[in-house]
Write a structure and sequence with these properties.
The structure holds two protein chains of two kinds. Chain A is mainly alpha-helical. Chain A has helices at 27-33, 55-66, 69-89, 94-110, 122-139, 167-179, 183-195, 199-206, 210-227, and strands at residues 4-7, 43-46, 51-53. Chain A is 55% helix and 5% strand. The chains are: A mainly alpha, B alpha+beta. The structure holds zinc ion. Chain B: This is Transcriptional regulator.
C-alpha cells in the first residue's frame, strides 16, 4: 500500500423513516430521524498521482469536454432523484422540487467547463448550484459569490503543510465528522441545510434560545475541525 | 492582507445553506474574496451540504423527466454559460467582486450622497428587506455614535476604523447587534470605506443626526 491508501466506508443501513414534513414543531428527534448517515462511495485515492478516481467527477469532465450525453444521463440518474428529496425535505412540494432539479441539471450541463475537480467534489458542486437556484426560486434574490477571476480576489496561500488532503479526502473527513456529531448539533446543522433558513429561524422553529443554537453550531465546527486533525 | 476579524461560524453556515439574505450575503461574499481562511470553511460546509444531498433517499422523478430536460437542452444548444465578463474593467478597480458589480465602478466614480459630518454613503440595491450601503468616513472623523435596533455587519474595504472593540482594517468583518454601543472613528491617515449592512435603520444617538435621520434615510 505504499503511497496509496483506500478510504472505505461500509454502506450505512438505509433506515430513514419516511420524512414527515418537519418544518414546524417536529423537534430535534424528528429532524435527526430524517438524517441518514452519509453513504460514501468507495473511493481510491492515489497519493502519488494526486488523482481521485471518482466516477461522478469524471462524468462532469466528460460533459465539459465532449458534451457527452451518456455521461450526463448517468449524472442525472444519480443526482436528480437525490436533489429532489433534498428540496422536498426543505418543504417544497414535488412539482416545485422537480422544477429546481431540472434547472440545476441544466446548469450542470452548461457550466460543466467551470467544474474543477481539484476544488470540489461533484456532489458539492451540484449542491451549490441547486442551493443558488432554490434561493432564487423561493426569495427572488441573488446569492452573491466571490469571483476568483477578479483582479482583487486574494488567492489561497501556497500549501505549506506536509499533509495536504485532496478535495475528496477532506470532503470525506468532513462528512464523517458530520455523521459522528451528537444528535442536537446534527439536528441544527441539518435543518439549516434542508430548510435554507438562517440559524435564528431554526432556533425559533426548534423552540430553542438563539444562544443555544449558536453554541451547537460552534461545537459542530470544532468537531469537524478536529475530525480534520486540526487544533480546535 | 492580514485579516483579524471574520464572520461568525453561524453566519458562514447561513451563507452556505442559502438562508442568509442577499445584503448580508453580499458582505460575506466580498469578505470571502479577500479571505482564504473563510473560503476554506465555506468549502467544507459546502462539502457537508453536498454530502447531505448525496445521502438523501432518491425520490421518484416525474415521468420523462430526463427526456424533457434533454429536449430542452437540445433546443437551446449551446448557450453555454460562459464565465461572466469582469464588470467595471473600464475604470480603476478598487472594489472586489461581487461588490463591484453591485455598485458599478470604482470608488472615485460613485454617486456618493453627502451626509455631512465627513460621512458619505451610497445605498446598494438588494432584493431582501435589509439595507446595504457603502459608507465613506473622512480620515479621523467619527462615524456618529449609534446603537442598532437589529444586527449590523461592517466590512472594511479601504482604510481602517477603530472602536472600543478593536481596530478594523481592509478585509476585516465586524458583527454588532443591539447590545453593542460603539463609536467607531476612521483612522487618521486615510478615509475609511466600508460596506455596512443593517436589518433596521441605524439609530443615531447624536441629536443632530437623529433630527435629520428621517430625511436622509440613514
Ligand atoms: Zn475570513
Amino acid at each position: 500500500m505504499d503511497g496509496c491508501f483506500v478510504i472505505e466506508r461500509e454502506a450505512a443501513p438505509v433506515s430513514e423513516r419516511p420524512t414527515s414534513p418537519h418544518r414546524k414543531g417536529s423537534g430535534v428527534e424528528g429532524a435527526v430521524a430524517a438524517v441518514a448517515p452519509m453513504r460514501l462511495a468507495r473511493r481510491v485515492v492515489d497519493k502519488d498521482r494526486e488523482s481521485v478516481l471518482d466516477e461522478f467527477e469524471d462524468l462532469i469532465v466528460a460533459i465539459a469536454r465532449k458534451r457527452d450525453r451518456a455521461a450526463f444521463r448517468a449524472l442525472f440518474d444519480h443526482f436528480a432523484p437525490r436533489l429532489k428529496t433534498f428540496f422536498m425535505r426543505g418543504g417544497l412540494d414535488p412539482a416545485a422540487a422537480e422544477e429546481i432539479v431540472q434547472e440545476t441539471m441544466v446548469k450542470v450541463w452548461r457550466k460543466a467547463d467551470q467544474f474543477d475537480p481539484a476544488k470540489a467534489k461533484a456532489s458539492t458542486w451540484i449542491f451549490s448550484i441547486g442551493r443558488n437556484l432554490r434561493v432564487d426560486f423561493l426569495r427572488k434574490e441573488k446569492r452573491p459569490q466571490p469571483d476568483f477571476n477578479d483582479p482583487m480576489f486574494v488567492p489561497d496561500p501556497e500549501p505549506d503543510g506536509f499533509e495536504v488532503l485532496s478535495v475528496a479526502q477532506e470532503a470525506d473527513l468532513v462528512r464523517e465528522a458530520f455523521d459522528a456529531l451528537p444528535p442536537d448539533q446534527k439536528a441544527v446543522m441539518t435543518l439549516a441545510f434542508y430548510e435554507e433558513k438562517p440559524h435564528s429561524e431554526i432556533a425559533s422553529e426548534l423552540g430553542l434560545p438563539l444562544g443555544t443554537v449558536k453554541s451547537r453550531i460552534r461545537l459542530a465546527f470544532q468537531r469537524i475541525r478536529s475530525g480534520l486533525g486540526e487544533s480546535v | 492582507m492580514s485579516i483579524d476579524h471574520h464572520p461568525s461560524e453561524e453566519r458562514l453556515l447561513d451563507y452556505v445553506s442559502g438562508g442568509l439574505g442577499e445584503s448580508w450575503s453580499l458582505a460575506v461574499a466580498t469578505h470571502l474574496a479577500l479571505c482564504p481562511k473563510c473560503r476554506n470553511t465555506v468549502a467544507r460546509l459546502e462539502a457537508m451540504g453536498g454530502g447531505m444531498m448525496d445521502a438523501a433517499e432518491p425520490a421518484t422523478l416525474a415521468d420523462n423527466s430526463f427526456d424533457a430536460l434533454w429536449a430542452r437542452l437540445e433546443s437551446e444548444e449551446d448557450e453555454a454559460d460562459s464565465m461572466p465578463a469582469i464588470a467595471g474593467h473600464a475604470g480603476k478597480i478598487d472594489l472586489p467582486e461581487p461588490l463591484r458589480s453591485y455598485v458599478g465602478g470604482s470608488v472615485d466614480a460613485l454617486p456618493w450622497q453627502n451626509m455631512g459630518l465627513g460621512v458619505r454613503q451610497l445605498l446598494i440595491p438588494t432584493a431582501d428587506q435589509s439595507t446595504a450601503r457603502l459608507l465613506c468616513v473622512a480620515a479621523g472623523r467619527p462615524v456618529p455614535e449609534h446603537t442598532h435596533r437589529g444586527e449590523e455587519v461592517t466590512l472594511v474595504l479601504q482604510g481602517a476604523f477603530r472602536d472600543s472593540t478593536g481596530i478594523y482594517a481592509a478585509g476585516d468583518f465586524q458583527e454588532a447587534d443591539e447590545t453593542v454601543l460603539h463609536q467607531p472613528h476612521a483612522e487618521k491617515d486615510r478615509d475609511c470605506i466600508c460596506l455596512a449592512v443593517t436589518d433596521a435603520p441605524l439609530k443615531f444617538r447624536n441629536l443632530a443626526f437623529r433630527l435629520v435621520q428621517p430625511f436622509i434615510g440613514i
